[in-house]
Queue: 2 jobs
Job 1
Amino acid sequence: MRLFERFRASRRNSAAQAKERLQVIIAHSRAERDAPEYLPRLKQELVEVIRKYVQVSQEDVKVSVERDGNYEILELNITLPK
């Protein structure tokens, strides 16, 4: 009987993990949809400037905009090589 309980517990954990991942994907797609028009161009220009000093790929630069009341917060994350 305990053998079957182990399989059920892992399914619940899998379902919870899948639900979490889906929530992250939905939040990410909503953020992209609500992003300002200039964001892709801004990201491209930032990559060009950074490449003058260090080699990074387009995927290494993450730009996002968050709204907090009347303010918009521009967040820039760059993964630099070691």
Job 2
Amino acid sequence: MLEVIKKGFLASLGAAVVTMEKIQEATRSLVQEGKISTDEAEKLTHDLIKSGEQQWQEINEKLTESMKKVAENMNVVRQKDFQELKSRLEALEERIAAMEGAKKEM
């Protein structure tokens, strides 16, 4: 699990370094050097960006799943579950207070 987090962190650093601008700069350089055509540069740029987005999504999903597993193993209560229990408790407190009020009136 730590390995997945480590990979996710390294990938996010890589994603920050290899931005769309860097990719475009590199492909323009290849065009200027005559190694690829303008059309090939555009396709390469598009493919690299799309691939990077897909990899980022996969890493995000794996990291999210890993974090969920960590939270489950640590017996951490999810915010949603906590709020639901809090609402139920408040409703019960209101009912008890109403019952006590009715009991005092008798």
